[in-house]
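re: that chain from earlier
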Amino acid sequence: MPAAAVDARRKGVSQGRGHRQDGPVGAMVTLGIDYDVRPGQQEQFEQLATAVVAALQAVPGHRQTRIYRDVQREHSYLIRSEWSSREALANFTRSQRFHEVRELGREILLGPPRHEVFIRDGEPLSAG
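^ sequence. v structure.
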């Protein structure tokens, strides 16, 4: 698992000019999800996240996913996934598999995950 310094929103993921929601339908999409893990639960989170990343390899439209640990806040992580299109990501987020993945590890998180969606080189589409 990479132990890279992250705050990807400030280090390249959200920089540049991208397409907003009315942009190209087939444009590549990046999903960034921030997690704050309960102290002492980092290893369990990393194991769960690694299993999820492996499972994503079989999902249509998924290109790659990386897990980052924030070196300044040891209990904070970012999972960044690249998708071939908005449709591919939307199909995944509507699937039963996504809802199962979303529920994994809830008891080890400090709060709900926060997410941002980017199209092409980074303008945010939505945040939550």
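The radius of gyration is 14 Å.
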